[in-house]
Amino acid sequence: MTDAGFVIAAYVGILGSWVAYALWLSRRLAARHAPPPPTGAPRPDNTSAAEE
Amino acid sequence: MNRAALPVRLLGIAAVLTIGAATWYGLFVVPPDLNQGDAQRILYIHVASAWHAFFSFGLAAAASVGWLIWRNPRFDAAALAFAEVGVLFTVSTIWAGMMWGKPVWGTYWQWEDPRLVTTALLLALYLGYLLVRRLTDDPVRRATRAAAVAIIAAVDIPIVHFSVTWWRGLHQGPTFGNPETILNPPAPGAFVTALLFMLFGVILLWAWLIIRRYQLARLEWIAEEAAQRAAVGVPA
User: Fold this and answer.
1) Which of A3, A13, A22 shows the shortest C-beta gap to B39?
2) Can you say whether the dihedral through the CA atoms of B24, B25, B30, B33 is positive or negative?
3) Does residue A22 lie in a domain region?
4) Which of A1, A17, A18, A19 to mutate to test the interface with B (most CBs of B within 10 A)?
């Protein structure tokens, strides 16, 4: 691999990992902030609370 | 969006723009080094990552001391945020170092080099910190055990820093090791500008990541407390 190849591998790897971590954080935070489903609304997996 | 979220969002946007501009400057504006060629461009992101990794772990240990003294969950959330982001930046540091090492040293890694080995040990210690947090569901016990690990692991931070002066190895000595080299850097102005530019961008990104991870940790702690209260029949 040429010097430029190592430079590209370094920057793509690092910037990619930072973006991936930031997206993971944002998704986890969005999930925490999401309001609970309204009472009586159909559950996405077609189960009821009593079945669990 | 609430008013408190706007500054954090602006911080994130500023981090993306600054790191993008610093990457462009380091890759396309700065000339190649006489000895290292284009490989020296890796050092800007390598050094910025390394400094923030060590800074993060130091703050994780400080927050852990805060937890042990005051037993405030905010300290535990802060310690987790610092440690996890520190792990991310340590992996970045090692990856950049390997990509620089192969063209300049002729090898990706050398186990005889004290700086490399102590940095790998630091990564292992804080991965251990994150694993210890998964051993129990009790938030108080988890925070106390993790705090002990963070404080013990922090002993390695000065060892990593001084490893290049205490022992001989492949890794060069500290570039900014004393006030004289800070005021009169032993590198061309364009190289120093690129490093400072990237450092500034990474500071912004680091702050954004810490704030977001802290917010997530606090929400997780609050949800755990609510679940525990519900389990024993105590109203929220």
Assistant:
1) A3
2) negative
3) yes
4) A18
Does A46 reside within a domain? no
Contacts within 8 Å (CB) and 24+ apart, B101-110: B101/B170, B102/A1, B102/A6, B103/A3, B103/A6, B103/B36, B103/B37, B103/B39, B104/B36, B104/B39, B105/B170, B110/B169, B110/B170
Q: Report ipTM for this prediction.
A: 0.91
**Is residue A7 assigned to a domain?**
yes
pLDDT at B227: 86
Give yes or no for residue B95 having a pLDDT over 70: yes
Question: Which two tokens mark B133?
Answer: 């947090």
Report pLDDT digits (tens) over A10-46: 999 999 999 999 999 999 999 987 766 666 555 555 5
- The number of distinct structural domains making up chain A is 1
Tell me whether residue A5 is in a domain: yes
Interhelix angle B42-70/B139-153, nearest 10 degrees? 130
**Domain B5-228 in this protein, CATH class:** mainly alpha
| Integer Cα distance of A34 and A27 in angstroms | 10
Per-residue model confidence (pLDDT) at position A40? 58
Q: From the list B39, B213, B223, which residue is nearest A6 (CB)?
A: B39
pLDDT at A52: 42
